[in-house]
Structures are given as C-alpha cells and as structure tokens.
Amino acid sequence: MNEYIKSLKDQGKLNISIDQNKTFNWDYFKIAGPCSVEGESIIEIAKEMKRCGADALRAGAYKPCTFPITKETNGWMEGLRKEGLELLKVAKEESGLPIVTEVMDASMIDIVGEVADVFQVGTRNFQNYTLLDALGKQDIPVLLKRGTWGTLDEILGAAERILVGGNRNIAICLRGVVGMPSYRHIYPTIRWAPDLMMIPALKEFTNIPIIYDPSHATGYRNFVEPVSKAAMAIGADGLIIESHPNPDMSVSDSAQAIDYKTLKRIFV
Ligand code: PEP
Ligand code: MN
Predict the structure, then answer these.
(1) Atom 4 of ligand 1 has which residue's CA nearest to it?
(2) I need a surface site. Which of 26, 31, 143, 180 has the fewest CB within 10 A?
C-alpha cells in the first residue's frame, strides 16, 4: 500500500471543509438531482431538491453513457452539453444550490468549471490520468467516482493523483462494481454489486470524505432508500442520489430514479 495517503491521514490533513460559497461541508453532504439535465425542467427540479434537503444539485450536462445514442428519435445524445451547462447556471442562480456536474475530459475543465462548484469524475474516467492530473492543478473540488472495476489501492492511487497536484478538495464517490448479483434475473436493471464494505475499508487508510451513490449501486429505485441508510450507517460522509419529478420518464437511468417524497424521507 502506498504510504502517501496514509501519512496524510496520520497528519490529519484531509477532511477539510470545501467552501466556495460558505455552503460546503463534506459532513453528511447530500447531493441530489436527475441523472441528466433534460431541459428547462432542471430549474424547478433544483428548487425542489433544495426543499427535499439537498445541499447540492447533481445533473449531467455531458453524459457518457454505455450506449452513446439512447433516444434516436429526439436526438438526445449523451447530454445537452453547452445548453445543459447554461441551464445549470440558471438552476444554480434560482435555487442557490451549488452544482455537481461531470467533466469528461481535461480540455473541458475551463468550460465546465464556469458552472461547476464540484467536478464529478465519472466511473469511466476513474483512471484517466490526464484528467486527474489536470484536476489536481486547479482548485474546484472534485468528486472522484470509483471505476466499476476499481480496487482499494486503485481508488487511493486515483485520489493521490489529484492530491499531489495540490488540490486537497476531494471526495471519493463509491458506486456499484462489477460482480453480478445472483438475483439479476429477477431484477433485470440491477447491473452492479453495491460493495458497501469498501466504506470502512477505505476509512482505515484515508480520511478523504466518502460519498456513496446508491443510485448507481443498485440500478433499481426500490433499493435506493435501504442502501442509502446502510451506507450512512456503515460510515459514509454523504450521499449522491438520482431523483426526478417523474422517475419513469427520466431520459437516462430511469429505473433507479426516485421521486421527491422518497428523497425527502432519505434526507431527513
Ligand atoms: C452519473 O452519475 O449519472 C453517472 C453516469 O455515473 P457513473 O459515472 O458512476 O456511471
Ligand atoms: Mn446516472
């Protein structure tokens, strides 16, 4: 095991409060919103997320999906992109919520950084070292999602990439991993194993805050609430949850989106 991150834990140097607008604090940090920015609806959704208790709004303007074309008929392809960022800007102004949104590429840091209060690094870029190195050299906080294949040392190594660049404002986001649950034939949208034990396993080595993503851990909305509770009980520092006004109509990840009522219940 690399001693670098461990030594930071020993020195108590991490777990700092992330604070651009005096609203950030990684202590039970609650992030919620739809998988994707779908249009102007994001403005009302943002206000609703705040009413449900969210500390930040999540929504992807740039969306790397397993299949690049999800809705051939309406042309929605991997996000609304620049238009999505513009809408997030308005959602932020009108709701007062900070924005967590994905940056897919080092060349996009400036443009996404005009809106993002936290950069989300998605699963697929977990070991994109060009991106991680670049994120280490700027000061917007980073939510680093675990790759679906990521081992404990690979998670710490990816985090270290950002830390050594000088950016200490990071959190690790755990989500589901490969390793097929045996009940997949009964619950066909479940693609991942939640691997909750990685929360205490990581805590032995680092005090980087850990945000758990029950949506991309379960893939099935009825399991989001119990898995959220389990994650907090086992030591997570916060949650990031996909929620939508009409979950079945979500343009992406509909099977795991939860309604406002359920979200509120989880967040109180
Ligand atoms: C997401 O948060 O919507 C997302 C695409 O997550 P992941 O990168 O974990 O697949
Ligand atoms: Mn999603």
Answers:
(1) 122
(2) 180
Ligand 1 within 6 A of CB of 60:
yes
Q: 35 in ligand 1 pocket by Cβ < 6 Å? A: yes
| Encoded tokens for 8 | 């930071």
Concatenated DSSP letters of 82-138: HHHHHHHHHHHHHH---EEEE--SGGGHHHHHTT-SEEEEPGGGTT-HHHHHHHHTS
**How crowded is residue 223: how many other Cβ atoms within 10 Å of its Cβ?**
18
Q: How far is CA 188 from the centre of its chain?
A: 23
Shortest CA distance to 137 belongs to which of 174, 114, 106?
Answer: 106
Tokens, residue 238: 């916060």
- Cβ-based neighbour number of residue 245 at 10 Å: 14
Residue 211: its H or E element: strand 210-212
Q: Mind listing the pLDDT tens digit for each residue in 124-159?
A: 999 999 999 999 999 899 999 999 999 999 999 999
